[in-house]
Amino acid sequence: MGIRMWCETWDVRRARAVVLVAAAVGLLTRTLIAANVPGPADVRFFQGFAEAIAVHGPLRIYEQQLPSLPVYNHPPLAGWMLLGLNSLSDWGISFATLMRWPASVADFFCVLLVFEIVRRRASPRTAVLCAVGVAVSPVLIATSGYHGNTDAVAVMFALAAAHLLADRKAPLAAGAAAALSISVKFIPVVVIPALLVAALRGGRPVLVRFAAGFAAVFALVWGPVLVTVPQDLQRNVLEYAGGSYRFWGLIRFADVFGLPESAIAFMQGDGHLLFVLPCVAAGAWLAWLRPAQLPGVVAFTLGLLLLLSTASGLQYLTWAAAGMFVLGLPEGLAYSVVLGLTAVLGYSGRSSVRWSEPLLYIGAAGWIVLAAGLATGVHRLLVTRPDGDPAGRTGQARLSAPPASQPSGSAVT
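^ thats the sequence. predicted structure below, dont judge the formating
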């Protein structure tokens, strides 16, 4: 009762201070894990990519044959990041530790972002709890502090783009953040149409500034690669459909229920776009209906992509981890608990790409939790009137935008 009263009487500055401490503790936890645990095979793969990039450069890497390494399917900015991390490792810092830093730092900023997004639509208590939930989420601690990869960085930029556009009224910066999100990992491409629709709803000047920010960063990051090795980039990145594992979601259920191998191969191959396009369409439709709720729309779209994904990977659980707290505190907590258990058990097993039978059942339960959370989250978005005021306020959240006179300063710019 005392904690609740303190939260409800906090001003924004005090709440930000608490969230900043939680974010710092979360970053420290992830850093300690990264510094003391070797990590999964992906860490070694990224080190191999970084060494190859140091030899061939971040442009020519796409045309190289890399024996004993997977397909290099990362967008151009990831190559520059790996080049920088490889240079830092020359100073005596383990590359395995360095590889987990970008995702861990991205989680730090996601904590601040989620607070700034939720506080405009809910009570200070709810905003603080959602932000702390991101900081201590076992999904994110496992996928960022242990696994690494770049998913968390891409999600952070996607949420930042939505926040900058809808809440901070900074379309130029929002466009730049949107371009950065797909330059680290291509997954957030599904939210770009929703961002464009929301910018369009803001009027021509907003759309022009958003497009200018996006185009400038895209040209800077993608232009040299598109000019140098366009076909290799298309094959490795744009046409990459994911792995062939059958541990998660629709593919897992298809395997359990005995669908023909040809159908499963189609779902994971040429047919995977049939599951991506509904995510794009749903995001654009929601952005048209509720442009003021753009951060929730982006969170829903990324979560729906995970729900319908035909690829399996524990690091993919990152896509929805922070966003579920944007959709609602109960949704975020349920996702973090069930999918957090999935991630922790998966990484502590023999291999993150060999799930035990109990883990497969927990993962299936997590898929159901995700589906339920997306359903309640999108319902909450839809019952909010277009002007941002909810049709009916609950004790958990108020989804309205703040009055024009309310301070809107953010720890994330």
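The CA atoms of residues 136 and 167 lie 25 Å apart.
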